[in-house]
Amino acid sequence: MWKRLVNSRAFYAVALVVLFLAFARSQFRLEEVDPRPLGEVADIGLLSESTDLNIIFVLIDTLRSDRLGTYGYERDTSPVLDALAADGLRFAHHMSQSSWTKCSMASLWTGLYPTAAGVTRFDDVLAADAEMPAEVLKRNGFVTTGLYRNGWVEGYFGIDKGIDVSTRPASMPLEDSIRRANPTVKEVGTDVDAIAASKEFLRIHGDDRWFLYLHLMDIHEYLYDEDSALFGSDYSSVYDSSILRTNLVLEELFRFMKAEGDLDNTLVGITADHGEAFGERGIEGHARWVYRETTDVPLIFSLPFKIPGGLVVNSVTRNIDIWPTILDLLGIEGLAASDGVSQRPAIVAALEGNENPENSESALAHLDRNWGRRDAPVENTVSIVGDGYRYVLTQRVGGEVVEELFDLENDPAELENVMEREAETADALRLSLIHIC
After folding, report:
1. Could you read off the pLDDT of 132-149 as tens digits, one per residue?
2. Which of 27, 265, 365, 426 has the largest count of CB atoms under 10 Å?
């Protein structure tokens, strides 16, 4: 009898109804936990009129953009970031300014390219008069806090200027299921510690106007657990598992913020300091070169309102643009000196269904390959992206200069050097590079 029932049309009809009702209930629950209103172009302008808009800036160390679903990756590594992009802002072609954390973060915070920021070697520190976004926010009434798990962003080289409290979160005992696959890791604790500290910050300062900088580190450590170990045992797959775990950790923070009502008046920004190479051109890791796999990173904004279907900004953007953009959205006067520009015009143009013709900026990444060797001579490698190409120039010790040019449209992996057949394009980008540097 049961077999006849399963094979009957009535059984499948009932099953479809049950599935539909379950889906409807799930959608209703989503609306309950995310009551933000729908937004439109005018709401971008209204952000600057808000007197209680908060900021949480999440830096996910070592996260390359092409390993996220919202950037086209086939594995389901990033459900939380994908969901934020699905009703927020995603910048499709975003680039960090170095593949080494200290250099990259100095550039991001100051809005200056690495040579202008002055932090390209192990012992370099920011200039005493360098203005930081936290200083600007503090002058405008924000309580400012930084929680980090990467030693390269400790305050000793000036990155904590304007931050009321900048500290490493206290480490809790590790769960038995935690695994780390990075053989050079020296960190203790996990990003769960940073999430716990973030919750405590929000409990204390939830009624203030606040800015929270949260620097996560588990992906750098290839850290995963039983729940996230879904993709395989090679380094590249473990990296993907670590991305998934970081998403699950962030989900806990955003769930807490939703429950407390904090997401209703908070701008969430998510990006990375650099990516990671997995042998695409015989290179692994980061902080050695400035090709796409170590410099193309995500940038996602989640706003106090939802944008149906999400919004994609397709112009080239850079980490140095992040703080000019955030401050402009808030109607706050920007950094006194900045190589970055606000992407608000590009955001508004995209909301209106147009490209932003005025945004023709190039994106540059820089690395002194001898940054960690105090007595070694400078060996710069620089890449610049513009007009659909990436030009890479490396000045080796001894005077040798190596040049490469990649066609981004016809060679998305950027593995074929087209210097010889695209000499004029290379010449133009080389001149742009000289002008920027």
Report:
1. 999 999 999 999 999 999
2. 365
Gap between the Cα atoms of 310 and 71, Å rounded: 13
Is residue 154's pLDDT more than 80?
yes
Q: Where are the beta strands (DSSP E) in 19-135?
A: 54-60, 89-95
Q: How far is CA 151 from CA 105, 108, 274, in A?
A: 12, 16, 15
| Of 311, 373, 318, the residue nearest 98 (C-alpha) | 318
d(CA 194, CA 229): 21
Closest-CA residue to 81 (of 288, 226, 219, 232): 219
The string of pLDDT tens digits covering residues 368-396 is 999 999 899 999 999 999 989 999 999 98
CA 222 to CA 218: how far, in whole Å? 6
Q: Could you tell me if 142 and 332 are in contact, meaning their C-beta atoms sit under 8 angstroms apart?
A: no
Angstrom distances, CA of residue 228 to CA of 68, 239, 273, 285: 15, 10, 23, 21
Residue 98: closest CA among 314, 269, 297: 297
Average pLDDT, the chain: 88
Q: Name the CA radius of gyration of the chain, rounded.
A: 23
Highest mean pLDDT among 13-27, 197-211, 351-365: 197-211
Structure tokens at 268: 């969430």
Q: Supply angle C-alpha 343, 344, 350, rounded to 5.
A: 90
Rounded CA-CA distance 302/80 in Å is 11
Identify residue 419 by its one-letter amino acid code.
M
The pLDDT, as a whole number, for residue 28 is 32
pLDDT reading at 24 higher than 80: no
- pTM, 2 dp: 0.89
As a dihedral over the C-alpha atoms of residue 412, residue 414, residue 415, residue 419, rounded to 10 degrees, the angle is 120
- Side-chain half-sphere of 64: how many Cα atoms within 13 Å? 21
